[in-house]
Automatic annotation (TrEMBL):
Chain positions of site May act as a substrate filter by repelling compounds with a negatively charged alpha-carboxylate: E79
Gene3D superfamilies according to UniProt: Type I PLP-dependent aspartate aminotransferase-like (Major domain)
Designated name of the protein: O-phosphoseryl-tRNA(Sec) selenium transferase
Record bears the keyword Membrane: no
Class of enzymatic activity (EC top level): transferase
Coiled-coil positions: none
Pathway: Aminoacyl-tRNA biosynthesis; selenocysteinyl-tRNA(Sec) biosynthesis; selenocysteinyl-tRNA(Sec) from L-seryl-tRNA(Sec) (archaeal/eukaryal route): step 2/2
Swiss-Prot/TrEMBL keywords: Cytoplasm, Protein biosynthesis, Pyridoxal phosphate, RNA-binding, Selenium, Transferase, tRNA-binding
Positions contributing to tRNA binding: R273, R391
Signal sequence, start to end: none
Family per record: Belongs to the SepSecS family.
Catalytic activity: O-phospho-L-seryl-tRNA(Sec) + selenophosphate + H2O = L-selenocysteinyl-tRNA(Sec) + 2 phosphate
Residues binding substrate: R102, S103, Q110, R315
Length: 451
């Protein structure tokens, strides 16, 4: 309520109580809230300190009132007027029903939804700030309501439009179906760069030799990966970027869950400094603890981001953007930096305990270079992953010498990213959000099953 209405309430509850309420609302609520909003709109970055749930919800309700479906006495006579039948659905979306973008341009302001459009713009600014906090500055960002695979496809389609002879994507093998499918979905032909074995680590293969066999003009891009399941190490993105710069070949990095790892972010930073990197794609759920459905494309090439933006057909869902917006405000800069630090601290204990359990039962932790998220323990029990799952331990993968076909290509030892990997093993990840209690419960149940 404003001052005039507070004063009017004095005739009902008494002027003393009304003045007391006016003082509290002005000092603790109204002025404080407006100051936080002003800072967000002016600084356009994640606030230093996270907001309370009450403040965030208050802000969301104010923003929703800017959208036309919430106007009083409105008359909507179009085919899409933000009408929502279920009150549960309406509340779930904070009464924002129009989505984002306009036909043919994802980031254009939607005239019927200025509040939703403002959320989208602010989320992109805060994503840029989050990537800076994770280790890389001066990258522009698009936050898309698409998961990582489709975001990669959007990048490939945009690059394809600028390379008329391009038909190939050189793909450094990583045994995740999404990576091959995103190439196929873009109507392009994958050329597989086979990996190499160095000790226990599966590393980037001989790219130089492969490039000598292909006309660079026919290559849409090289697709590298930094966040991988052990025993795969992150690709040598610095070497790849230098070759891309030398031969004028675009380079896209699949950094799905790499934002949480300072070592990976340093590798990408060096690749940007020394070579060519056109786009970096990150998952929102794997890096910021939100539901599945969003991705961040970051780049120093504003024209590429504009092409991706304009190539999106029609409007898009607001949900993944809203989830990330709320989470940024909840965490604040201090909170985000803290969860990055917590994961980094936990990695040391995770690695030690995993190795100790392996040694106790005659197994060993594989020594994987530069991968401090995913870990692998040699394992001869091929149903260990399933046994852990029925005991409510999720995320582990058993990998043996099995074949799998993906998009017409057959791979041996699928999951290891290397044909004929010499060990069968079980993987587990120390990813952002993991707690000490979860970690200890996992190791306790693993220890029991290995007895």
């Amino acid at each position: 309520m404003d001052t005039a209405n507070i004063e009017k309430s004095g005739s009902i509850i008494g002027i003393l109580y009304a003045n007391q309420a006016l003082s509290v609302l002005n000092i603790q609520s109204h002025n404080s809230f407006n100051s936080l909003v002003s800072q967000l709109l002016t600084q356009r970055k994640i606030p230093s300190k996270g907001w309370s749930d009450q403040l965030i919800e208050h802000f969301l309700h104010e923003l929703s009132l800017m959208d036309s479906n919430n106007y009083q006495d409105r008359a909507g006579v179009g085919e899409r007027e933000g009408r929502v039948l279920s009150s549960i659905v309406n509340r779930r979306h904070y009464y924002m029903a129009h989505g984002i973008g306009r036909s043919g341009d994802l980031f254009s302001i939607q005239p019927k939804a200025p509040g939703s459009s403002l959320i989208l713009k602010l989320t992109c600014y805060m994503a840029k700030h989050a990537i800076k906090l994770a280790g890389i500055d001066k990258l522009d960002c698009l936050v898309l309501p698409l998961a990582t695979g489709m975001a990669l496809t959007m990048c490939l389609l945009s690059l394809k439009s600028s390379r008329p002879q391009g038909k190939y994507v050189i793909w450094s093998r990583i045994d995740q179906k999404t990576c091959l499918k995103c190439i196929s979905s873009a109507g392009l032909i994958p050329i597989i760069l086979e990996t190499q074995l160095q000790g226990d680590s599966v590393i980037t293969g001989d790219l130089e030799s492969l490039l000598k066999t292909i006309n660079p003009l026919e290559i849409v891009c090289i697709l590298s990966t930094t966040s991988c399941f052990a025993p795969r190490s992150p690709d040598d993105v610095q070497r790849i970027s230098e070759l891309c710069k030398e031969l004028n070949i675009p380079h896209v990095i699949n950094n799905a869950y790499g934002l949480q790892c300072s070592k990976i972010m340093h590798m990408i930073k060096e690749a940007l400094r020394l070579g060519r990197v056109d786009a970096i794609v990150q998952s929102t759920d794997k890096n910021f603890l939100v539901p599945v459905g969003g991705a961040i494309i970051s780049s120093r090439d504003k024209k590429l981001l504009e092409n991706i933006n304009s190539s999106y057909p029609g409007r898009a869902s607001m949900s993944p953007i809203l989830d990330l917006f709320i989470t940024f405000l909840t965490l604040g800069e201090n909170g985000y930096v803290e969860i990055l630090k917590n994961r980094k601290k936990l990695v040391v204990e995770f690695r030690e305990k995993f190795a100790d359990i392996g040694n106790k039962h005659g197994e060993r932790l594989l020594d994987i270079r530069d991968n401090s998220i995913s870990f692998a323990l040699t394992c001869r029990n091929n149903d260990l992953g399933a046994k852990l799952f029925v005991r409510r331990v999720s995320g582990c993968r058993f990998v043996g010498d099995k074949e799998k076909e993906v998009c017409g290509f057959r791979f041996r030892s699928y999951g290891s990213s290397f044909d004929g990997y010499p060990n069968s093993y079980l993987t587990a990840a120390c990813a952002i959000g993991l707690t000490s209690d979860e970690m200890n419960l996992f190791f306790s149940r693993l220890d029991q099953l290995l007895e």
